[in-house]
Amino acid sequence: MNGYNGKMLRVDLKAKTIKTEALNEDLAKKYIGGRGLGTKIMMDEVDPQVDALSPENKLLIVTGPMTGNPVATGGRYMVVTKSPLSGTIASSNSGGKWGAELKFAGYDVIIFEDKSDEPVYLSIEDDKVELLSAEDLWGTTVSVTTKKLQEKHVKGSKVLTIGPAGENLSKIAAILNDEDRAAGRSGVGAVMGSKNLKAIVVKGSGKPKVFDDEKLKETNKAQLSKIKENGVTGQGLPTYGTAVLVNILNELGTLPTNNFQLSQFGKAEDISGEALAEKYLIKNTACYRCPIACGRYVKMEAGEGGGPEYETLWAFGADCGINDLRSVIEANYWCNEMGLDTISTGSTIAAAIELKQKGYIKEDELDGLKLEFGNSTDIMEWTKRMGYRQGLGNKMAEGSYRLTEGYGVPELSMTVKKLEIPAYDPRGIQGQGLQYATTNRGGCHVRGYLISPEILGLPEQLDRFATEGKETWVKIFQDLTAVIDSMGVCLFTSFALGAADYADMCNAIIGSDHTADSILEAGDRIWNLEKMFNLKAGIDSSQDTLPHRLLDDPIAEGPSKGWVTKLDEMLPKYYKVRGWSPEGIPTEEKLKSLGL
User: Fold this and answer.
1) CA–CA separation, 585 vs 563, rounded Å?
2) What is the DSSP string of 22-71?
3) Is 278 helix (H, G, I), strand (E, B) or coil?
4) Which residues of 559-591 are buried (b: 16+ CB within 10 A; e: fewer)?
5) What distance in Å separates the CA atoms of residue 273 and residue 457, rounded to the nearest whole number?
6) pLDDT band at residue 303, thresholds of 50, 70 and 90?
7) Please, what are the domains in the chain?
8) pLDDT of 467 strictly over 90
9) pLDDT tens by residue, 214-242
10) pLDDT at 337
11) Alpha helices in 490-584 (DSSP H)
12) Which residues pair with 82 in a beta bridge?
């Protein structure tokens, strides 16, 4: 199979059995790989109503046909499971070098079933695959686990692991690989922890086949040129990383501040990408075969390590009213060590601060710690307590929705489908608001990045306040993103590349005959399959909405003053352009047209 290895590993953690199975070639081509293929396997093998933290849920690690292949950013993989945070299908994406190493070892998919009676980890060295005891690793942080396993196994081994947060079943726990690359969203780390699975170590010596080497070289050359010539991928991201967005969003009045109570942060410059580069940056870092190198390697009190992305700078910075960049960097470090999603962690702390601000959380619950907007004194300590589930951190480890619900005010949680909304105030970016509301895994910005046309002007500049036509843009971006996630390349390439480019990539590697239209159709198929999983799980379209604050409370001041998200204008049109019923349910005709 060109692009694929044609093999899956099925690991029964309770029975301690490991089987190699053939990858279904027809399904791989129909659903591409990664997110699409993983969702199809989940739909076929798991009851969508399963308790996400029960042994009956499955945990899938799924690469794409581009993963491990010589294409720009071809190193990504997906973790697919049912989310314990939202109850939706979860497919969380990560980069680094681990995903490519799994392909080099000869496998496209790993399916983990049931639950081990004791802590274990999976070791893969090409054809040698075994479950080994992780008793001595249980309780250790991500960096300690990584270093211990790399010392124990063959040189060059790559490590994927959970930290204490995943072990303690925090619903916002992430899975980390290469120490600071995270499959962060939806609580996938808790599912791994629920199975007593601490880590996966992999070392491979092979490489997948490609259909047409010469065509691939031509395609790569053309696409690399587009990536390097693009202002975002060729200049902005390499220079300042994703944090280049801090000042841009703040100047537009769309940088959520103090748990979305405000939309501008007066001290944004202090936590910007420019400030990070000037004061803390040591060097850029890149994932496998990435020409962009947006990663930040920074100096910290603890030494050196992976630095914060834009979302993290916002979550621990503006959203908590904090302008102390050093504290934000340290909080990011402890999220990596604990194995916590930085967006959900910072957002949950922000919600807790508002709970304290409004008198719901009392002083006697704080154990002497500070919980105030603008006060960075204990931000690292709260992060650790969430990882270890200590004191109030035990409630916070459940995410902001369950935290605020516990105090009787769930409206203070800035979430969609219980997943925390990232760093863009949708009241001033209408298409992004529609995207948040309709995303299949909850409040997510990378399932249809409308920031690209509405803010950055790529592929063309849209009026960010307009609602007309946004339903079509959202659908196209959601479908394209589904394919990108399934292929195993980075979403950031879409700043420079379009659907036809991804079709060319697939054709050169797989030997398919994709066009731009068929690529988008594949994305539409994946999106509808995810929607059907969610409907069967009980997540109906009444949850395609936004927090009350974003729908009813206008932005009070700044360039976006007076705006709310006009979801009621856009949502019916979105359902129609998707070919769904007015209730947001895929019609029989729609499903048949997609082969579902």
Assistant:
1) 29
2) E--HHHHHHH-SHHHHHHHHHHHHS-TTS-TTSTTS-EEEEE-TTTTSSS
3) helix
4) ebeebbbbbeebbebbbeebbbeeebebeeebb
5) 20
6) confident
7) 7-203 (3.60.9.10), 242-419 (1.10.569.10), 425-593 (1.10.599.10)
8) yes
9) 999 999 999 999 999 999 999 999 999 99
10) 97
11) 499-510, 516-536, 548-552, 567-578
12) 89
Q: Token digits for 544? A: 């395609």
DSSP reduced 3-state for 460: coil
Tell me the average pLDDT across 310-325. 98
Q: How far apart are CA 550 and CA 531, in angstroms?
A: 24
Place of tokens 């994709």: 514
Residue 15 exposure: Cα atoms within 13 Å on the Cβ side? 9
Query: Pairing state of beta strands 415-416 and 419-420?
Result: antiparallel
Residues 493, 496, 497: CA angle, nearest 5 degrees = 75
Contacts of 347 (CB under 8 A, 6+ apart): 259, 315, 319, 400, 414, 415, 420, 421
Q: For residue 515, which phi and psi values (nearest 5 degrees)?
A: -120, 175
Beta pairing, strands 109-113 & 7-12: parallel
What is the DSSP-derived secondary structure letter of residue 118?
A: S
Q: Is 481 helix (H, G, I), strand (E, B) or coil?
A: helix
| Alpha-carbon span 229 to 331, nearest angstrom | 34
Q: How far apart are CA 381 and CA 363, in angstroms?
A: 16
Report the helix count and the strand count for the chain, using DSSP H and E.
25, 17
**CA-closest candidate to residue 62, choices 105, 95, 111:** 111
- First and final C-alpha spacing in the chain: 24
- Give CA–CA dist 588/528, Å, rounded: 11
Cα angle: 461, vertex 462, 464; to 5 degrees? 125
- Confirm if 555 and 563 have CB atoms less than 8 A apart: yes
Cα(111)–Cα(552) distance, integer angstroms: 44
For residues 125 and 105, the answer to whether their CB atoms sit within 8 Å is yes
Q: What is the DSSP letter of 161?
A: E
Report which residue type is found at 123.
S
Burial class of residue 128 in the structure, from the number of CB atoms within 10 Å of its CB (0-12 exposed, 13-18 middle, 19+ buried)? exposed
**In this predicted model, what pLDDT tens digit does every residue of 575-593 receive, in sequence order?**
999 999 999 999 999 999 9
Residue 517 burial (C-beta neighbours within 10 Å; 0-12, 13-18, 19+): exposed
Specify which residues 122 forms β-bridges with: 131, 200
Residues 6+ apart with CB under 8 A from 526: 31, 32, 35, 36, 39, 479, 482, 483, 486
Task: Report d(CA 79, CA 339) in Å as an integer.
Answer: 15
Beta bridge partners of 193: none
Residue tagged 């029960």 (tokens): 54
> What H or E segment, with its residue span, contains residue 566?
none
Tokens describing residue 67? 């993963």
Q: HSE (CB half, 13 Å, CA atoms) of 393?
A: 25
Peptide bond into 426 cis (omega under 30): no
Tokens for 375? 């006060």
**Among 170, 158, 169, 171, residue whose Cα is nearest residue 199:** 158
